[in-house]
Structures are given as C-alpha cells and as structure tokens.
What we know:
The chain is of the alpha/beta class. The chain is about 45% helix and about 20% strand.
Amino acid sequence: MKRIILSVAIFISFTLAMFAQSVKPFQDGDRAVFLGNSITDGGHYHSYIWLYYMTRFPDMNLRVLNAGIGGDTAHDMYKRLDGDVFSKNPTVLMVTFGMNDSGYHEYNGDNAKAFGEGRYSTCYKNYQLLEKRLLGLENTRIVLIGSSPYDETVEIEDNTPFRGKNAVMERIVAFQRDAAKEHNWEFTDLNEPMMAINRRFQQKNPTFTICGKDRIHPDNDGHMVMAYIFLKAQGFSGKEVAGIAIDANKATVLEAANCEITDVKKSGRDLSFDYLAGSLPYPVDTIARGWGAQKSQAGALNIVPFMEEMNREMLTVKGLKGKYKLLIDNEEIGIWTGDQLAKGINLAAETKTPQYQQALAIMYLNETRWEIERTFRDYAWMQFGFMQPKGLLFANNRAAIEAIDKHKAENIWAGIHRETYAKMMHPAVREAREKEMEILIDKIYEINKPVKRTVVLRKI
C-alpha cells in the first residue's frame, strides 16, 4: 500500500512540475490580494498560503487579503476594482477568473459549440477592460492564475456534467498565460494540474474529485491542493522546516539546517540537546470548516506530497541501538528504534511536539481571522452583487434594507446576507471587526516565533 501511495505522489509531483510557472515569493511588507469569484470568496486556499508564511517566515510582516465575490466574471471584477480591490492597496495582486465567464447549462443544449465560443469571446473582451486597469497600476506585481477546473469526468449521482465547459476554461487560461508573457507578469495554472490529479485518481475511483460535490467548488482538501500548487510555483518544494542530524557516539552535530543545535551531551541512558528552529512546522487542520464543507484540509495529504516536499522537520540520529523514547520539553512524543532514528523521523508529522502545538494555536487564530474576513466578503457581495445594479452602491441606509426586503424572495442570496449587511453597513461595526482581525494578526506574529526546545532521547 505504501508503494502505491508513493508512486502516486511521485507521479503527481512530476505532473505538477511540468505545469509549474514561476511566481516570486511574497516579501516582507507585501499586501497580497487574491481577486476572484466564489472559489476565492468562500475558499481557504489563500488562507492556507498565508498560514505557510506565518509558520515558515516568523519575522515576515505579510498580509494576505481575500477579494473574491461569488458569481463574478471578469467584467464584474472590473466594475469593483476601485471600490473593493484597489482600496486594499495591493503590492501583489493575484487575478483568477473563468468559471462563471464560461457559462453553464447551455453546454447541454443544441448550440453548445456556439455558446462556448460566445462565452469565450465575451470573457476575452471583458478581460481586456480589466487588463487596461491592471497595466495602470504602479508598484504592484500582477500574477494571473488559471482557474481551478470544472470537473466533467467525475461520476456524481444526479449531477449531469456540462460537457465542453472546461475546454473553454482551458482556452481562457491560455490567453491569461499569453497576456502574462506579453506584459512581463507572473502566471501559474491551477486547471491542468488539478485535472491531472483528478484523472489519475479517477482511474481507480470514478467518484473521486478535488473540485467539490458540484464539480465547481473545491472542498478544504481541494483548497489545500490549490495552496500546494501555488506554493510550489513560488519555489518552496524542497524547503524544509529544519534538519537535525546528530552523531550519538561522538555527541556531535552532523547537520543543523535552518536551526541551531547546542549543548549536545550523553548522560546515562539519555542523549540530549537544545534545539532552536528557524521555522515552525505547518499545522494541518483535521476539521471540515466553512459553509457546506464536508472534507478537511488534512485530506489533501493523501493527494499531494505536501509533507514530503514542504513540511519536513527531520530528526536523524546515528549510532543508537535499541528503542528510544523521544521527549521535547519533557513532553513524551513517541518511541522509535535506533534504525528508525538513523533513517530520520519527520517531527512535523508529530502533532504532540510543543512546536506543533505552538503552530496549531496560529492555525486557530488564522481560522478565526478568516471567519471575520468572510463577513466582509458577504458585505462586499451585497454591495457589488446586489446594491450596485440597483444604484444603491454604498448607500448603507434604510432604502438599501428596504430594497433587500423587496427582492429577497427572488434573490435568495440577498435574503441570506441581509443580517450581515444590516450590521456591516454601519461604519462602527466594520471598524470594530477590522480591529478584531488586527488583534488576531498581531497575536499570530507575537506567538509564531520559534523558541528553544530541549530534546531528549532516552533508551528504554
């Protein structure tokens, strides 16, 4: 079984390497804004990416912001650039579209080919409007992202696929790639790597997909795959949390990668040393979070080799025989043989370690921040998806509430977001919620600094 999982991981890693594009890593002080549709709006991939930076680069002052709105096309994004996107003052702007631009039900109609061609042409024209505004930005890096795919091949009961939709999306990705090359922008594609994963796993399980139960919206595992692909494009494959190698017989350090190892000593049954890492392990959530979610972030670990490529905190100890209990700051982590320790164990996979627990607190704080940010995105949807077409953009008054009440029967989302809008239309409420997020972010950057740990291997 392990060989099968390993072969799948090697295939996927090779496949993604084929399609990986260069995206510069974020830098200290960056404000990285992700502009997109509902996949960005209600999704976690950008939050998972920020969590990587929070734990891997503890001294980097970075902000990652969600600028997605459900249902948006490239034209919808164009219309809200000033009121929503540019107001976030991005230093790096990620732009992804195509799911809504390419259309839906008409692919199963009589004129599917003509429909797809029309949607492609309209999308390209709308993109050109967007492109002109992006070209006018100063001191902002532009990163075009090929949309996550519409999965036509997965078998889902009572869900007839829109045949040919993703082919149109692939054409949209292609013109994004060409535009990025023309303007010296950065580009990475989610569509083909994710479909390659789907095709691979569907060979054995036709119901497998990382594109969600509706073929469109990835669940948490799919969003972690998206984060992995993006981080891989940024060049983080092979970048380890830390690497520790000790010669037990000589009580000497053989390797200290991204860490400091001091005070190595043997005393009776114990081999001990002090360990100060430069980073924290990446904590992986095991709970399905978000509206309608059924899968957790951890599910992605069975799909892509994230742990093997980007989350290695390796402890290797040569020269030990027998069984040894590992303790870190007097917390028992587990028991390993001398042979296992000589081959190396990945501490990032051990959730009991004090450093993993430290990272877990960061994960929960970041998740709480994400939940608050979502209320701002629901408020933005009300402004640009409902109020703007009615001439009530930023009205934030009783007339706006009355408009919601008048139309909520015909617009289910207006009814769903009414309570959020009624609260968030008040500046004091928005200001308070912003401060809540800043408190959470400040706390994250307060507690994300690695601390010196005492590591003990005690012979049993």
